[in-house]
Amino acid sequence: MPPGTNAVTTSTSQSNPSAPLVIKHPIEPDAEPAVRLREARLTYQTKEGNPLEAVSPTTLTIRAGEFTALVGPSGCGKTSLLRMIGGLIPVSGGDVQVFGETPKDAQRHKRLGLVFQEPALLAWRSVEDNVRLGLQLNPRETHSSTDVHELIDIVGLTAFRRYRPAELSGGMQQRVALARALAIDPPLLLLDEPFAALDEITREQMRYEVQRLWGISHDPTDPPRSAIFVTHSVPEAVAVADRVLVMSPRPGRIIADIPITAPRPRQPEHEHSDRFVNDTAIVRAALRSPTTPAVPLDAA
Amino acid sequence: MVSEPLRELDHLDAQARRGIPLAPPDVRPMLAWVLPPLIALLLLAVAVEIWVRVADVSIWVMPRPTTVIENFFSDFGLYFSEGLKTLGVSLGGLAIGTAAATLLAAGVAHSNILERAVLPIAIMVKVTPVVALIPLFIIWLGHGWNPKIAIAALITYFPVLINAIAGFRDIDPRMHDFFRSVDASTWEIFRHLRLPAAIPYLFASLKISVTLSLIGAVVAEFFLSGHGGLGAVIWIEQNNLRLEKVFAAVLMLTLIGVTLSTAVVLAERLFSWRLDQPVAAA
To answer: CA distances (Å), B236 to each of A149, B88, B104, B217, in order?
Structure first.
């Protein structure tokens, strides 16, 4: 097992001894960056035919293994930036690379795991079949080592694996969506406000769930997984991320890049620490003064 | 692992969403739906019977309901066998019309150009009285079953086409994004996302089309009365002024229509039930 990895103990891990799940957290600064944006911008055409700039030219590097949170006011272009990285909308200019390839190629090689604000599950499929969906699609790129039952066990839904989504709570559905995204073992997770529709208590629990699941991989030789987490919640961003990017109101641009250096694994108690309170205050200050970067931007 | 409190909450949530176990089906609501129209129909028949007897209405104008019922049962074999022919034409047309409309809708749902090319023609055919095309179909397809099935198919395709297009397009955009994010093929998106999403729409259109197909079959049989069917019976017996036979044939058509519509509703309920219920007890 490579350094920086730990075996995960699960009740079903013995069922697939050839592919034990491992947890990897370290950021690999020398590895191929997970995401690289060079002057990437997005301009929409209004109904009147006028250009509307949604995302200003953005240059950004996200390292392999890095958990990056993206915060900003509503409509600032956070989701648009995420969709540009995921290849779901074409950039109007500049360049986006995901592990050194275009977003379309990253899709083709199943390098992206998407989780949305709503779980977006297939109502007619059971939990198990929803988790399996990503494996069934584009099967040439499917990793044979993925054990769906083990993943369902990790998200705590073994007892519900034959239930349909409508029978589950919002939090449970979102865990199914997370398991579905993880089933293809993607090196990059794109999380678009995944807890926005949940109640506060479930939200608090889920942010630590996501941290735990983010590091889980089937293949110990894979680079550590990266994640981009769009959220409106500053405490949520500070609790989970290695780095918080703050965006300005539209046209969105990254105006602050704030490192969060709290050690991992983080527990809920971390939110009572001075370090957490301080980091939260820095992010809030950057949000309140969107024109003045709170922290100098790294032009990487 | 997921924490114990969260696990407990999961069970409570799922329990609440599943609700109380299903009780054995209660027949009272069913009777409440079926009995009133049956009683109303019976009262109407009694009123007609009284009117025909009291006013001494000619049998060539309105036969007594009791005479119709008597004839229906005495010649039940005839109405049943001719009804089977009409049912065959109706189902054949429904199957062909539904299949063709669904395939066309699948193409239209994927292509705006195809939509712009095909939909105006589909609407043009829809607004053209189908009866006007029957002589052409007889010339093209002969005097057998084919023109009758073609008419039934033509009359049923439109509701299916419009509903299927709506169904194939009514997909969750985030779900579509998920499919795109793993580079799913067009076929995979259709097979796993668009087709299941369209099922409720297809059932809604079938409820309309199933009765339309019966209308198409009967109208075609009026024109092709030499090849049997209840439409032919009605046409011939109307010329013979044997109205009790006309009414008996109409009664059989009503029974076929009710049976077909009920079958579609039951199939839809069965399908919805399968969706609503857990795949298996956890």
So the answer is: 67, 20, 38, 16
Residue of B nearest to A171 (CA): B10
The reply to whether B279 touches chain A by the CB within 8 Å rule is yes
B184 to A137: CB separation less than 8 angstroms, yes or no: yes
Which residues form the domain of B108?
80-276
Q: What is the CATH number of the domain that holds B203?
A: 1.10.3720.10
Q: In this structure, what DSSP letter does residue A7 have?
A: E
Q: How much is the average pLDDT of A152-156?
A: 86
CA distances from B2 to A132, A180, B80 (A): 20, 17, 64
Q: Is residue B34 part of a domain?
A: no
Whether A23 and A241 have beta carbons less than 8 Å apart is answered as: no
pLDDT exceeds 70 at position A31: no
Task: Specify the fold of A32-111+223-264+274-300.
Answer: Rossmann fold (3.40.50)
Counting other chains too, the contacts that B266-271 makes at CB distance below 8 Å and 24 or more residues apart are B267/B203, B268/B200, B268/B203, B268/B206, B268/B207, B271/B199, B271/B203
Q: Does the residue B224 lie in any domain? A: yes
Domain tally for chain B? 1
CB contact under 8 A, B175 and A136: no
Q: What confidence score (pLDDT) does residue B279 get?
A: 44
Which residues in chain A are contacts of B181 at CB distance < 8 A?
Answer: 86-88, 107, 112-114, 190
Query: Which pLDDT score, from 0 to 100, does residue B20 have?
Result: 45
Does any domain span residue B108?
A: yes
List the domain boundaries for chain A.
32-111+223-264+274-300
